[in-house]
Amino acid sequence: MRIAFIVLALVGSMMATIQSAAASEDVVRGDLHATTEDGVRIFVRELRPRSWLDGAEPIILLHGARVPGLASFDLPVTGGSFAADLAQRSGRLVYVMDARGYGGSDRAAAFEQPPEANPPQSRAYLVVRDIAAVVSIAKERSGSRTVCLLGWATGGMWVGYYASLHPEDVGHLVTLNALYGGSAQHSQFGPGSPVSDPAHPDRLSPTIGAYARYDAASLLPGWDKSIPVADKDQWRDPVVAAAYQRAALESDPESQKSEPPAFRAPMGAIEDSFYQASGRRLFDASTITGHILVVRSERDFWSRPEDVQAFAHDAVHARSIRIVALPEATHFVHLDRPERGRGQLLDALQGFLVEP
């Protein structure tokens, strides 16, 4: 196994902007559903380049804890579809999925009840079933025996978990700003954090219910705080930010029933993230056998350098490991402007995918 450490400088690129604008025109979209082994329907969007590599490993993109797939990866504005740019640049089929409880996928009956009536929904052990269903479809439609999984934030934890259980399915694995139990200290999710139980700081608060509601305004403060300039528009396109908020609300048919409008997000991701942030690993990376790319933004508020180090340390059977650091980049790097890390992330992925 070889480990490569790469630091990508944030250099402006006009070409990246031009490619992003053209990508949507060169990609054909289609919406599908996959059914899990326990009968849950999972929403999937396929992005097919007009000229694609038949038999090449397809790429599956998985969102994070709050905002589902399309809002995260396929916004209908220039610079807002990381999925389209990735499909166009790689020449591969790209699939954007929603985990159960999110977006166009089935929601459990608990979502029709008050959140406090049920425990956190869509835990990681269930989401790996969702990934399995999408992997099956992606393999069949692409003609490839393996897939590339890319997960952002909690999505990185989920795809890593899946790859540890089904290493034969995953030729390439990408985690973007993901937790991995590398430390017992985390300001937002660890012991003693706002989501911990005051009586038992190493446990999740019992007040965390099945789901939470998020309005549009709640999606920007963390992003704003991590951008190191006063004018946030210099870092991210305001059109992309507005589309992100709009798509998040549109992902839930119940969002307009709240005032202000708010979408529901399962809290299972928060429970699992709490354990990871507390140093309790949900899976062991030693069983992953494909190529691994671990990407972390310098200004990420979710993952920690210790998570990157721990993952690389444990992944002893990976064919190769690349660790990419994106200086000054934010947690939302794939939605930021190309010169703020998005272009460098696409470059890193393009280089990684050619690993045989």
From TrEMBL:
According to the record, the signal peptide region is 1-23
> What are the UniProt keywords, alphabetically?
Hydrolase, Signal
Where does the AB hydrolase-1 domain start and stop, copy by copy? 58-194
Q: Which Gene3D superfamilies match?
A: alpha/beta hydrolase
- Signal listed as a keyword: yes
Give the matching InterPro entries.
AB_hydrolase_1, AB_hydrolase_fold, Carboxylesterase_BioH
Task: Give the Gene Ontology MF terms in alphabetical order.
Answer: hydrolase activity
The membrane spanning regions, by residue number, are: none
- The name of this protein is Lysophospholipase, alpha-beta hydrolase superfamily
